[in-house]
Amino acid sequence: MMKKRQMVIKQRSRNSNTSSSWTTTSSSSSSSEISNVRYVECQKNHAANIGGYAVDGCREFMAAGVEGTVDALRCAACGCHRNFHRKEVDTEVVCEYSPPNA
């Protein structure tokens, strides 16, 4: 009689360039990965042209338009492009594992 076990691994990445990999060494396993992306505080330096540093204080990206339009990439709060907002990626990996027969 084999028992199936389910394991959930959650990881939060603050950098979009961070890559992670999961490996399994079991005889019978399956996994799925779910990623949620959100854009938080704006990091645009509004004083760069005068040699200073000043951000506008926008805390979270809110799309100015519906998905598929140009305004979907512009923040309704600060007017900046979405790329100026820090990207957070929440990744959840769900694995189902059946131990090998002994």
SSE map:
Layout: E1 5-13, E2 28-42, E3 85-98
Mean pLDDT, all residues: 79
Question: What's the story with the biggest beta sheet?
Answer: 3 strands, antiparallel
Which strands sit side by side, in order, in the main sheet? Answer: 1-3-2
* Strand residue content: 35-45%
Structural class: mainly beta
Total strands? 3
Helix content class: under 10%
- Provide the low-confidence segments as ranges: 16-27
- Give me the Rg, rounded: 21 Å
The number of distinct helices, counting runs of at least 4 residues, comes to 0
The rough form would be described as: elongated
Topology as a string of helices (H) and strands (E):
EEE
| Straight-line N-to-C gap | 11 Å
Describe this structure as you would to a colleague:
One of its GO terms (biological process) is negative regulation of DNA binding. By secondary structure, the protein is mostly beta strands. The chain has a domain at 37-102. The chain contains no helices and three strands. The chain has strands at residues 5-13, 28-42, 85-98. Strands 1-3-2 form a three-stranded antiparallel β-sheet, with no helix packed on it. The protein is elongated, with a radius of gyration of 21 Å. The chain starts with a strand and ends with a strand. Mean pLDDT is 79; it is low at 16-27.
Concise synopsis of the structure shown:
This protein has no helices and 3 strands.
Features:
102 residues, mainly beta, three-stranded antiparallel beta sheet, 0% helix
